Amino acid sequence: MSDALPPGSAIGILGGGQLGRMLALAAARLGLKVHIYEPAAAPAGDVAWRLTTASYDDEAALRAFAESVDVVTFEFENVPAAALDLIESLRPIRPNRRALATSQDRLSEKEFLQGIGLTVAPFAPVSSRHGLDAALATVGAPAILKTRRLGYDGKGQARLASAADADAAWQAMAGADAILEGFVEFTTEVSVIAARGIDGAVAAYDPGENVHEDGILRTTTVPATLSLSLAADAVLLAGRILNALDYVGVLGVELFVTPRGLVVNEIAPRVHNSGHWTQTGCIIDQFEQHIRAVAGWPLGDGSRHSDVVMENLIGEDMARVPPLAASGAALHLYGKAEVRPGRKTGHVNRITGPAR
Amino acid sequence: MSDALPPGSAIGILGGGQLGRMLALAAARLGLKVHIYEPAAAPAGDVAWRLTTASYDDEAALRAFAESVDVVTFEFENVPAAALDLIESLRPIRPNRRALATSQDRLSEKEFLQGIGLTVAPFAPVSSRHGLDAALATVGAPAILKTRRLGYDGKGQARLASAADADAAWQAMAGADAILEGFVEFTTEVSVIAARGIDGAVAAYDPGENVHEDGILRTTTVPATLSLSLAADAVLLAGRILNALDYVGVLGVELFVTPRGLVVNEIAPRVHNSGHWTQTGCIIDQFEQHIRAVAGWPLGDGSRHSDVVMENLIGEDMARVPPLAASGAALHLYGKAEVRPGRKTGHVNRITGPAR
Fold this sequence. Notes:
Keywords (chains A, B): ATP-binding, Ligase, Nucleotide-binding, Purine biosynthesis
Number of helices of chain A: 11
Oligomer: homodimer
Subunit structure (chains A, B): Homodimer.
Catalytic activity (chains A, B): 5-amino-1-(5-phospho-beta-D-ribosyl)imidazole + hydrogencarbonate + ATP = 5-carboxyamino-1-(5-phospho-D-ribosyl)imidazole + ADP + phosphate + 2 H(+)
Shape of chain A: globular
Pathway (chains A, B): Purine metabolism; IMP biosynthesis via de novo pathway; 5-amino-1-(5-phospho-D-ribosyl)imidazole-4-carboxylate from 5-amino-1-(5-phospho-D-ribosyl)imidazole (N5-CAIR route): step 1/2
GO molecular function, one term (chains A, B): metal ion binding
C-alpha cells in the first residue's frame, strides 16, 4: 500500500447524487473523509464530511475543494472540461481524464471499443440533417439517433422505424452532434461491474442481468442467464477495457447477449446502478471497491456469497416503502427531498438464495 | 408503519463515537438524517447531517438539538439525567429512560435481571469500606468490586483474590458506590444482540462467542460453541429482558455459559461491539435494526447467511491496516484522529463459510 492514502485522508467527489452518497458511506467504513462538490441539491451532502454547493464554473470554489482533499473522483460524468483542468492542476483525478473523455462522447466510446477489438452496434456520426441520410444508408433502419454527449436514462434519443422518421429525429437532437446506432438483436442485456487498482490489479463482479422499462433500469438479477463461456468473455472484455484506459476505479459495462456473442452497448466510468446488488451479495460492494481503488488501496474481495435481485424504486414507487420495509429485503433510500416521475429514489436488494 | 417516521425524518443520537458513526451510516441507507450530539471529538460527525459539539449541561444546545429531530436515541449510556429530562420534554427517547436507568447502575441491573427470573452472578452492594467486609462475607472471594456507575472496558474495577485485597479494592473505587460480584465458573462467554420494535415484535441475531483480552473484547465468532437448547435459551432470555423493559431498539446481552446454564453478565441498552459481525453476516445489521426500531419501522430480517469472525482493532493494531486491507476481509475503520493504547479504532469481519 505504498501509494495508499492513510486512514483520515479526504476524497473529493464531483456530484452529490445517490452514487456519491453511497460512495461516501463506503469511504466512511474505511475511515476516509468525503468532500462532495455539487451545484444542485445533494443527497450525498447529508453523509459527507464537507459539502460545497457551487457551480462547475466557480473557480474559487473548485480550487478550495481540490485543495481540501487528497484525490478527486466523480459520480457524474458530465463535468465541464475546464473544471477538470483546474482540479487536475491541483490533485489527481481517478479514474483518469481519458476514461472520462472517452465515455462522455458516444462516438469516441464506440471508436475506442472497436479499436480494442470489441464488438459494438453498427454506428455512424451525424452532425446535420443531410448527414443523417448518409448515416441511415450505412446503418440501416430501424435505428436510434442519440446526442453524442449528455444523454442518460433515454434522454436525448429518438427512434427511427424508417427513413420517414428522419426529420423528427433530427429535430429532437436540437442541433447537437449525434450518432446513429443500429439495433442489435439480443436475447438479454447483462452488465459487468469491474474495478482496476492503482497497481493494475483487476477484479470483476459476476455479470448481472438487466431489465429496463421506458429506458430506465428496473431490475438486475445475479446470476445472469448466461453460459459459462459468455460469463468469462464478459469479465475478460471488461478487463481489456480497464487496461486499455489505464483505468483506476470501478467501471460499468453494459452488454447485449446475442447469438453471435457479446456486443458492448456502453460503458460508464463510475459505479453503476446495475452494480447495486453487490451491497447485499458481496463482502465488498462496488462503492467500497471504487473508494479502495481511487485511494490507492488494494482491491477487496468481490466474490458473491448470495444470489440477489435488485429492483429500482422510481418515482411513485416511494409509496411502496412501508410494505418493502416489512418484507425482509434490504432497502436503500437516497434521501431525496423531492419525488418526480422517472426519478430514482431508492432500490431494494432481495437475497434469493446462496450463490449458485 | 403507522407510527413510522417517513423517509427524510431526522434521528438525534447522543454520543458521537464509532457506534454513533455506524448508526449514522445505517440511517443514511434508509433515507433518514442524523444529528449527532457529542461534547468531545466525534468520528460520527463526519457522516452526519448535523453535528452539535456541546456539553451535556448546555441547555440551549440540548434544546436546539431536540427540536431539530423527530426522535432521540443514544450510543453512550452515561448521559446525565438532567439532559435526558430536558430532551424527553421535547421528543421521544428510544429506548426508554427506564432501560437506560436500569443498565446505568450495575446494582439496579442485577436486581432487575434477578427480578424477572434470570440467573446472575452472586452480588452485594458496597457503599463503604466496612460494607465491603459484609459483602465479602455474603459473596465470598475471589470476587470483583465494580463502581455501580460509569464503568466500561474494565475501568472502575478491582479484583479481590481474598479479603486481604479489600483495602486496595475499596480505594480504587475512589469513594463511589460499588457492587461486589462473585466470579462465575464459565466455559465460554457469548452474547445475544436482540431488537424490539415499536409494535412489540422481537428479533434476535444468532449468539456470538466472545473472547476478551485485558477486559476489552478481542473477537466475536458466529456461530458460538453452544448447544441448540442453550442457544434457544439465550434468545428467549433476551426477549424476556426486552419485553420487561418495554424496550424499543437494539440491546446487547452478555452471557456466561456454565454447566448449570446461562448466567447474565450484563446488558447494554444500545448496539454492541459483539454485534459488529452482523454487518458482514446478515442482510440487516444491528445498526440498521436499531434505526428501524427507533424510527418506528418494522424490524428487518436479521437471519445469518454466513459464518463470521469479528476482530477488534485496538491501539497499535492500526499498523496492521495495510495487510488487512489486502486480506479479503471486510475492514471497518472509525475515523479516529488519535490512536491510543486500548482504544478501539476499527474492526475486521472475516467470512469463514456459509452459515452452519
